[in-house]
Amino acid sequence: MFISFEGIDFCGKTTQVELLKKYLLNNNKKVEIIREPGGTKISETIRNVLLDKSHNKMYMETEIFLFSASRAQLVREKIRPYLENGFYVISDRFHDSTTAYQGFGRGIPLDIVEKINMLAIGDTIPDLTYFINIPVEEAEKRKSMKEKNELDRIEISEREFFEKVKHGYLDIAKKEKRYRIIDGTQNIEEIHNQIIKELMIAEKKEIL
């Protein structure tokens, strides 16, 4: 199964990715964790360019093509081969991030974003997507607890940008049956338990 985690920055999805990995491994499943952008030698090089705060003159068109280039490499080099070999592939972000961040957030027309996404991933679409939903106010609070030098080029964006991104995710969630909206204001264990419950339901449907 291909599972993706989505959400605005500081929503806590990376923590939940690791907890899900531990759960699956404890149940004798084969698991591969990937992150976006990144996950391969080429993709990690692109990641460094994308998140470097010194690249503050990066145009939104450059940004979307870099994210998509990283993803295209990751899909072909890692995701498809692992799925074909019976792994659970868990991705910390995937193509929905581009729709939410570059489409809704930056304002690139959604029809163009969709075409770029499809070129990058083809038919490799997650079976299940968890959207860890938190208020932007909570994200801002968590961000304020970080040192400025710990924040990347995307994380330093203004609140208005993240409001648009969150709206984008909620719009995607209305259209995609694979989406499960998780209340990210719950404690870590409650979120994890809800994720496992939704996974068990999804697996049962796959079997049936």
Any key phrases for this structure?
Rossmann fold, 5-stranded parallel beta sheet, 8 helices, about 210 residues, alpha/beta, single chain, globular, 5 strands
Averaged pLDDT? 97
* Oligomeric form: single chain
Q: Which class of secondary structure composition applies to the elements?
A: alpha/beta
- Mind telling me which CATH architecture this is? 3-Layer(aba) Sandwich
Radius of gyration of CA atoms, rounded to a whole number: 16 Å
Cα separation of the termini? 15 Å
CATH homologous superfamily - what is it? P-loop containing nucleotide triphosphate hydrolases
Alpha plus pi helix count: 8
Q: What is the CATH first-level class name?
A: Alpha Beta
Morphology call: globular
Count of folded domains:
1
Helix content: 55-70%
Q: Provide the low-confidence segments as ranges.
A: none
CATH topology: Rossmann fold
Strand adjacency order, main sheet: 2-3-1-4-5
Classify the beta-strand content into a percent band. 5-15%
Helix and strand arrangement:
Layout: E1 2-6, H1 13-26, E2 31-35, H2 41-51, H3 60-84, E3 88-92, H4 95-105, H5 110-121, E4 128-133, H6 136-144, H7 159-175, E5 179-183, H8 188-207
Parallel strand pairs: 1-3, 1-4, 2-3, 4-5
Helix pairs in contact: 1-8, 2-3, 3-5, 4-5, 4-7
